[in-house]
Amino acid sequence: MTTQQQKLPPVDPMDLAGIDDLLTDDEKAVRASVRQLCDKLVDPYVADWFERGEIDDIRGLAREFGSLGLLGMHLEGYGCAGMSATEYGLACLELEASDSGVRSLVSVQGSLAMYAIWRWGSEEQKQQWLPRMATGEAIGCFGLTEPDHGSDPGSMRTRARRDGDDWVLDGRKMWITNGSIADVAVVWANAGEEHGGIRGFVVPTDTPGFSAPLIKHKLSLRASVTSELVLDGVRLPADAVLPEVRGLKGPLSCLNEARFGIVWGALGAARSSLDAARRYAMEREQFGRPIAGFQLTQQKLADMALEYTKGLLLALHLGRRKDAGTLRPEQVSLGKLNNIREALEICRTARTILGANGISLEYPVIRHMNNLESVLTYEGTVEMHTLVVGQALTGVSAFR
């Protein structure tokens, strides 16, 4: 054995590949800060929030996230932190290690609502909303999905029509995170070919004709506000439209931002479940010894650790590409397709190690597993991302 080998530190069971060595000190500091905040403000309460289907003082939690710079953290200016994509990804991982619903609050605020205004809005819209959204004083939501049009947003039925100098919006949006607590909604509507097709609108939620009924009876993302948006003759001034984009490019660019965070976030749920299963296996005794000592349990743990490690390496690679300005949408689809699928399988396998205890909220596993069933579908289903990757491989579109 060489001198160098003798000096190696003990292996970290949650970082077998030593991926931490690839992170900068700043990236580790961001991760540690988010973990500290979640340890204090989320983890002691989140099982109760999930069981009751509501978060206590969600606005206060948003302000706490804002005070740490988490809201719109990868955007520049307007009170945003201007951090790197990789730092944002690490923050998403830590947030979702606590709960997918909590990460969704931050993701929808920053990568959907704030990003839409930051990327496609007027200077007046940016000045009006972004500084308050960055602090958590104002909450945003993103209205794209409709009851009859999820994966095919180009067929949306929500309409925007001109009436003099005003715009008037009519339609419905469904499964909208933050909708019932939002101060502002970015709503996408079909304005007709003469006005540029699909257009985005910045809608203050106190505008007459706008309502956001809460969606109840969920068995997933219960520690999250999910709503329907109802727009009945919502009259807006001419400057409510996002001026810098027309067509599906607008909403799809925002979705790509959110998907990047999900690539990282799902790994948080996976890590939490893997660690819970590992610790449980070392404490739970059957047939006179810890179940960690049985070959089948070790195989499960090894397979989970392997998939988690591969997913983290992929996320980090995509983060480096995003920071370098070379990340392609197809690569984000590759990351979401793999990491959500494998994270869900990790949670399901972890549940088997915990046995009957795996369905109890005393442990995080069933909560993460249920949450990931939603994450698997939103921001693009497995089928849609599969076809994106398939088209990149073959050059042939199979969407229609």
UniProtKB/TrEMBL annotation:
SUPFAM superfamilies, sorted: Acyl-CoA dehydrogenase C-terminal domain-like (SSF47203), Acyl-CoA dehydrogenase NM domain-like (SSF56645)
A biological-process GO annotation: fatty-acyl-CoA biosynthetic process
Gene3D superfamilies with a match to the protein in the record: Acyl-CoA dehydrogenase/oxidase, N-terminal domain, Butyryl-CoA Dehydrogenase, subunit A, domain 2, Butyryl-CoA Dehydrogenase, subunit A, domain 3
Cofactor(s) in the UniProt record: FAD
Single annotated GO MF: fatty-acyl-CoA binding
Location of the Acyl-CoA dehydrogenase/oxidase C-terminal domain: 246-393
Residue ranges of every copy of the Acyl-CoA oxidase/dehydrogenase middle domain listed in the record: 141-234
Keyword list, A-Z: FAD, Flavoprotein, Oxidoreductase, Transit peptide
InterPro entries: Acyl-CoA_Oxase/DH_mid-dom, Acyl-CoA_Oxase/DH_mid-dom_sf, AcylCo_DH-like_C, AcylCo_DH/oxidase_C, AcylCoA_DH/ox_N, AcylCoA_DH/ox_N_sf, AcylCoA_DH/oxidase_NM_dom_sf, Glutaryl-CoA_DH_mitochondrial
Acyl-CoA dehydrogenase/oxidase N-terminal domain mapped to chain residues: 24-137
Pfam families: Acyl-CoA_dh_1 (PF00441), Acyl-CoA_dh_M (PF02770), Acyl-CoA_dh_N (PF02771)
Similarity comment text for this entry: Belongs to the acyl-CoA dehydrogenase family.
Protein's recorded name: Glutaryl-CoA dehydrogenase
Organism listed in the record: Pedococcus cremeus
